[in-house]
Write a structure and sequence with these properties.
single chain; about 400 residues; alpha+beta; BirA Bifunctional Protein, domain 2; nine-stranded mixed sheet; four-stranded mixed sheet; elongated
Length: about 400
C-alpha cells in the first residue's frame, strides 16, 4: 500500500461522505428540522464534547461504554465525545431552560461518535436529527413524538414505514424479584431479547410462565396487545401495558396506513428509556431509521428535585439516505470561460447550478459533459449538451 492509499484509509465505522450524498444529507436535515418547527419544536445546538461527569450523568449514564474520552489540555479534566445527543438536550432542559414553560419542545441535529458499531449499524459516526418533549408524561405526548417522526419521514417521501412499540420496564420488576446474580440476569435478559422461549423457561424460575407469555405477546399490534391484556401482570407492569395500549390506539387512529407492531420485552438500544419506546423501519432499508421513547430527565449527582418525564425520537441520517428515492443531481450548466458574471446571476436566480470554466477550451460541449453538466451557455442562451435547442 503506497502513502496516498494509507492516507485515504479510515478507521472501521468511519467514512467520507462524497457528492452528492453530503449535500443531500444536509438538505434532509434541514427539511426534517423545518417539519419539526411547524409543530412547535425549537432548535438547540449542544457542543460536540463536554466534561465527562456532565455528559455521562443522569440520562447519559447508560451510554458510558459507547463513549470516547479525552483529556482537556486547558482544564486538565476528562472530557467525553457525545455518542448520542438526547442526554445533551436533557441537560439543556434541566439547566439552562429549567424555567421555560412545560412541555418544552426542542429539536436538534448533529454528528455523534461511538466506540463500536452493531450488526445492524456498523457505522460509528453518523448524523442524528431529533426531537425531545420534556415535561409530558401522558400517552398523548408519546404518541405525538411517534406521529411527528412518521410525518417527517413521509415529508421526505419515505414509504413502507413500520413502527415497533416496546415497553422496556414491563419485565424489569420481574427480573428484580428473581434476585439473580449479574451473570444469570444478563443471560436471561439476552434470552428475552432474542425471543428464545426455551431458554427463558429454563432461566426464568417462578416467573418463567409470565416471561414466556410476554415473549409470546409479540407481533402485529392488535393481536400482541390482546395477548398482553390476557396476562396476570403485577401492578406496575399492568400500568405500563395499559400505557402501551393507549399509545398504540392513538397512533393507529391518526396514521392507520403505517405498520404497527409490539414487542413487550425488547430492551436493546433503549439504555436510558423507562417508558413506551419505539423503533421506526422502512421496508427494504437496512437498519432502523430512528428510535425513541420515554425517559427521566435528571442528574443523579446534583438533582434538586424529582426527575421530569420526557419523550423523544432520534432519526439517523445515514439510514435515511438509503431510504430516500434517488433524485436528480440538479440542473447544472457549464459557463465557458469569459461568460459575464451577470449571466450567471440570472441563471442561478432561475434555479440553475452554474459551473464556470476557468480557461478557454476547444470543445465546450465535451467540457460540460466532463464536469457533469447537462447544459451549456452558448450564444447567450441555454443549450443542452447534445446540441439540440
Amino acid at each position: 500500500m503506497d502513502d496516498l492509499a494509507k492516507k485515504a484509509l479510515l478507521p472501521a465505522g468511519l467514512q467520507d461522505l462524497l457528492p452528492p450524498d453530503a449535500a443531500v444529507e444536509a438538505a434532509v436535515a434541514e427539511r426534517l428540522l423545518a417539519c419539526f418547527a411547524r409543530f412547535g419544536y425549537e432548535r438547540v445546538k449542544p457542543p460536540l464534547v463536554e466534561f465527562e461527569e456532565g455528559l455521562l450523568d443522569g440520562t447519559g449514564a447508560g451510554l458510558a461504554n459507547q463513549t470516547f474520552r479525552l483529556m482537556d489540555p486547558v482544564s486538565q479534566r476528562m472530557m467525553a465525545v457525545r455518542s448520542d445527543m438526547t442526554p445533551q438536550v436533557a441537560r439543556i432542559a434541566a439547566t439552562r431552560l429549567s424555567h421555560s414553560p412545560r412541555p418544552l419542545r426542542l429539536s436538534y441535529a448533529g454528528d455523534i461518535l461511538r466506540v463500536r458499531g452493531s450488526e445492524l449499524r456498523p457505522e460509528r459516526q453518523f448524523g442524528q436529527v431529533g426531537i425531545e418533549m420534556i415535561g409530558a408524561s401522558a400517552p398523548a405526548g408519546d404518541a405525538e413524538v411517534i406521529l411527528l417522526a412518521v410525518e417527517a419521514l413521509k415529508s421526505l417521501d419515505v414509504s413502507g414505514l413500520a413502527v415497533d412499540l416496546n415497553s422496556p420496564t414491563l419485565v424489569t420488576a420481574e427480573l428484580d424479584a428473581l434476585a439473580l446474580e449479574d451473570a444469570a440476569r444478563a443471560r436471561l435478559r439476552q434470552a428475552l431479547d432474542r425471543k428464545e422461549a426455551a431458554e427463558v423457561a429454563a432461566l426464568g424460575g417462578p416467573a418463567a410462565d409470565l416471561l414466556g407469555g410476554l415473549v409470546a405477546a409479540t407481533g402485529p399490534a392488535k393481536s400482541a396487545l390482546g395477548a398482553l391484556a390476557g396476562l396476570d401482570l403485577p401492578t406496575a407492569a399492568q400500568g405500563a401495558a395499559e400505557t402501551l395500549a393507549a399509545v398504540a390506539r392513538i397512533v393507529h387512529e391518526a396514521a392507520p396506513d403505517i405498520i404497527l407492531t409490539v414487542d413487550p420485552v425488547e430492551q436493546r438500544g433503549f439504555e436510558y428509556q423507562t417508558g413506551v419506546s419505539f423503533t421506526v423501519f422502512a421496508r427494504g432499508v437496512r437498519g432502523e431509521l430512528g428510535r425513541g421513547g420515554g425517559y427521566p430527565v435528571g442528574f443523579e449527582a446534583r438533582r434538586a428535585g424529582p426527575a421530569e418525564a420526557a419523550v423523544g425520537c432520534t432519526l439517523y441520517l445515514d439510514s435515511l439516505l438509503r431510504a430516500l428515492p434517488r433524485g436528480e443531481r440538479g440542473r447544472r450548466i457549464f459557463l465557458p470561460a469569459g461568460t459575464a458574471w451577470a449571466a450567471g446571476d440570472s441563471l442561478r436566480a432561475d434555479g440553475w447550478i452554474t459551473v464556470a470554466g476557468l480557461a478557454p477550451v476547444d470543445d465546450a460541449v465535451a467540457e460540460a459533459g466532463r464536469l457533469g453538466c447537462s447544459h451549456l451557455w452558448a450564444g447567450g442562451r441555454v443549450q443542452p449538451t447534445d446540441g439540440q435547442v
